[in-house]
Description:
Elements: H1 3-20, H2 23-26, E1 32-33, E2 36-37, H3 38-66
Amino acid sequence: MNSAYYVAMLVVAIIVTLLYSLFPIYNKINPTLGGLPIFYWYQILLLAVTTVLSAIVVHFVKEEGER
């Protein structure tokens, strides 16, 4: 792995950490989504966002490594 991978993953980690640190914003009951309060579905959404961002980084670094 090259250093671009580590830098990109660090950026993703910082973004996700910042989104998780917005605790006062999502520490509520309303709105609900499918019966789940925002406290739960926000964190579930962040798991999906983290996975997608990490996959994007891996994909681009893998393509760059194949050149």
